[in-house]
Every structure is written in C-alpha cells, then in structure tokens.
Write a structure and sequence with these properties.
Elements lengths: L1 H6 L4 E5 L8 H15 L3 E5 L4 H11 L14 H8 L3 H7 L12 H22 L7 H13 L7 H5 L8 H13 L3 E6 L4 H5 L4 E4 L3 H4 L6 H5 L2 H23 L2 E7 L2 E9 L2 E8 L7 H10 L3 E6 L5 H4 L9
Helix pairs in contact: 2-3, 7-9
C-alpha cells in the first residue's frame, strides 16, 4: 500500500504461487481484501497453486464473493511443441507434464517421475489429506485401472471383480469424483438427451493428461506405435484429454454414446448444439454407429478425427468450440 502511494500507481497486481503451502492462506487473503476495500487500495491478487482441491477448499470456505476463478489445465500439445519441440506422437504417449519432458529419452526415469513425483504426491496430498478415505488402497487401484482403461466403458460392478479390497459401486463413484476434482482421472457420462439418465450411466474413463495412460503401459513409444490397437486407444485418449481439459474453460458438456455395439467416442453439447466425434487413428471412416446416433438425436454435426476427416495431429491444437 505504501509503495502504491509513494510511486503514484493507480493499481498493483500481486502474484502468489503455491499459496496452498501457507497455513490459513484464505483467511489472510480475505482480511487483506477487506482492508484494501475499506482503504480504497486497488490491489489485484493473483493466487496460484498446483493443488486444485486445496485451492477450491480455501476459496469456498472463506472467500465467498471475493474471487474470480480461472482454471489452468494440463499443458496442451501446442504448448509442449513450442516449449520442448514435442512431436504429436510424443505428446500422445508422454502427455503434457513439462517437468517430465527432458526425461522422455529414458523410459524408466520418465515412468518413475510420473508415478512417484506426480501421481503419488497428487493422490496423497490432494485427496487423502483433504478427504476421509476409508479404503485408500481401493482408491489407488481404481485410479490405476482408470488410467489403464482410459477411453473404455467399464461398469463399477465389472471393476469390483478386479479388486481385492472390494467396496461398493457408491464408494467407487465417490472415489472417481475425487480423482476428477483433482484433475487426474474423470468419468464421462453417457449421452442420452436427458441429464437424469446420463447421471446414472456407466462411466467412460478418461485421463486428464495422457502421460497417465502411457505410464501405466509397459510399452515404449516405438513399441506402442507398432501395436495398432494400443496406439488407437492412446490417440483416442489424447483426444479425450484435450477435450476434457478445455471443458471447464469453454463451458461445454462432454459425454460419450453407446448402444449395444454402436458407439460415438465423444459427444459435445455447447449452447444448445450437439456434435458427435468419432476417433479413428487408422484410415477407416465413420462406422454405422454414426448413422444410428444421427437418427436418434439429430446432432448438428458428426465429425471424424482421422485420415478421412480432421487429422488427429491437427485436432490436438483445435479449440473445440470452433466446430459448432
């Protein structure tokens, strides 16, 4: 405040990073905000933190009406390309963690960094420290399976069959919500044209950062590219992560659709318009599921991401709202 007056500035911007490491930070910021408002000091505080859940807890508990929230997601392909000269293929397998970019030439070091420095610390710090978790081993195993099966549709009952420390579907749904809030692993709902039906649907797992997919598979990037099924899933997961990360920024809804053997990989709803997105990393075109989806819901568009549509390499740089 003294610096403002002495130097004659009309306003200041104060940037504080990793604020969640400061005890009772939200109460202090609230008090300073109130004092500055009373004193007429035009100081704008930009508060940053790597822990999304810790920041949300502080904001909702004591900062009501005093903040504007801006979501900064995982690094995009465009950002990783500009900063580290990543190829599209590298981004699909290694994802968007800038701290791990210099380790991609050493597969073991890269995996250890993702697992221990990022995954373990995020789950232990952002989830287990903030929320009562009766079965932490169950949460961690759910997270592992969700990363392995990213872009696949698995019922919680089927997942329970793969778990030793079995809980119930309600517990698993709650744990998936926590990993979603932490910006790690989400569960897309099935599109049905009805929010009520969608909320009771079987989730489609989707990682927020494709490094979480790659690090849970033993293959190297070159080996993954030689496996058409695995590589197809990796590309689809990267497309899904791109869409999921931009969902909060652009305020669209993101779903999947499936009826028996017919499927649309992603369904976007934005300002009353609906778009279906089908991802094909090989040379095939739209499948019969697209026509069935068109007849049932009359979407505004069905877009193919692949060699016969928008190249997946280009789609990873697209603002999804321009598709509408």
């Amino acid at each position: 405040m003294d610096k403002l007056r002495i130097e004659g500035h009309q306003e200041f911007i104060l940037v504080i990073d990793e604020i969640q490491k400061i005890g009772n930070w939200s109460e202090t910021v609230k008090q300073c905000w109130d004092d500055d408002t009373i004193s007429g000091v035009n100081l704008k505080a930009l508060v940053l933190g790597s822990s999304r859940m810790l920041l949300q807890q502080g904001l909702t508990e004591s900062m009501a009406g005093r903040f504007e929230q801006m979501y900064l997601g995982h690094w995009s392909y465009a950002e990783m390309q500009e900063a580290f000269d990543f190829s599209p293929e590298q981004y699909v397998w290694y994802g968007g963690y800038p701290g791990a970019a210099h380790l991609v030439e050493d597969d073991n070091r890269w995996r250890d960094y993702i697992k221990f420095s990022l995954i373990d610390s995020s789950i232990n710090r952002d989830i287990l420290m903030l929320t009562r978790i009766d079965k932490p081993a169950l949460l961690k195993r759910l997270f592992e399976l969700g990363c392995i099966y990213s872009t696949q549709i698995l019922s919680f009952n089927k997942i329970l069959g793969q778990l030793q420390d079995a809980g119930n579907t309600t517990t698993l749904s709650h744990y998936l919500k926590l990993t979603d809030d932490a910006g790690l692993l989400g569960g897309l709902e099935k599109y049905s044209g009805s929010n009520v039906k969608s909320r009771g649907s079987i989730p489609k797992f989707q990682v927020y950062n494709n490094a979480l997919f790659g690090t849970h598979h033993w293959q190297t990037l070159k080996e993954a590219q030689l496996d058409p099924i695995l590589w197809g899933r990796a590309v689809e997961s990267a497309i899904g992560a791109h869409l999921l990360n931009l969902k909060q920024k652009y305020r669209y809804e993101l779903y999947y659709w499936r009826e028996q053997n017919d499927e649309i990989d992603f369904v976007l709803v934005y300002k009353g318009k609906t778009i279906g997105i089908e991802v094909k990393s090989n040379s095939s075109g739209l499948q019969k599921g697209a026509e069935k989806f068109r007849k049932l819901y009359n979407p505004d568009k069905i877009i193919l991401v692949g060699n016969q549509g928008i190249l997946w390499q280009d789609f990873l740089k697209i603002d999804p709202t321009i598709l509408f």
